[in-house]
Amino acid sequence: MKLFGIIFAAVVVTAIIWRATTAEVHNGKSQSAQPQPTNAVAKTAWSAQEIAKDPQGYLRWSDQQVQSQIAQREAHLRTLNDRRTQIAARRDELAQNLSDVKNIHDRLERAYRQADDEDRWPFKMAGHTFDRDKAKQILDQTQKYITDRSPLVQTYADSMAKMDQLDATLNGDIEKLKTLREKLALDLDSVQVNQGLDELTKVRSKEAELATMGKALSDMGKDPTAAAMPPPQTTGRVDVDAMLR
Asked: Measured between alpha carbons, how far is 238 from 84 in angstroms, rounded to an integer?
């Protein structure tokens, strides 16, 4: 009986081990049979063979590229409008400063000549008293201010013209891209109905157009408005009264 009990216990243990091993192998096979996740890598280009194999996929990818290009150009336009506002404010401030300084210069010059002609020194103007030397010094300073800053008027005008041109270019590109999106949508409908040679040729024709628009965007750089910005200048209203002291 003891011998029989030992044999029976050994059989039970062997059966348990066999079942555990079988279950482990089965689970391993089940897990390996399941599809493993793959890291999807965003495509940056399609070959002719890939387009021919999956024209619908290419058209959907192209539409995403067009949407991205539109978004980037719209972002450039927002930056452009902000900077145009800044430049316009600086331009108007410069014009007002030049007008104020020129007004003081011209008034002081007339008073200087009158005092010199009538030999009436010193003379008073705008609440200040001027002898010959002080008047001459301020006339030189105000004239230098006008001479140094007058060229900036044209600089600001050139900057605004460049921004107007960039604005027209960006808006024109956006309209072209919107039209291209419409064409891509029509091509997608056509390909879904009939994947013939004619439809595939239409698909390929959009490839060059999309590439051209992409290159134009790349050529602009990250900040196309930077080239249109005038050089930095000290801003703020001029203190005319301080000039006369």
From this structure: 22
Average pLDDT across the chain, whole number: 81
Residue 42 backbone dihedrals phi, psi, to 5 degrees: -65, 130
Residue 175 burial (CB count, 10 A): 11
Beta strands in the chain (DSSP E): 123-125, 128-130
Beta carbons within 8 Å of 16's beta carbon, 6+ residues apart:
none
**pLDDT tens digits, residue range 93-151?**
999 999 999 999 999 999 999 999 999 999 999 999 999 999 999 999 999 999 999 99
Residue 224: asked if its preceding bond is cis (omega within 30°), the reply is no
Please give the single-letter amino acid code of residue 166.
Answer: L
pTM for the model: 0.72
DSSP designation for 128: E
Q: What share of the chain is helix, strand, coil (3-state, %, to 5)?
A: 80, 0, 20
Amino acid identity for residue 189 in this structure? D
Q: Exposed, middle or buried: residue 243 (CB in 10 Å: 0-12, 13-18, 19+)?
A: middle
Minimum mean pLDDT range among 94-103, 204-213, 214-223: 204-213
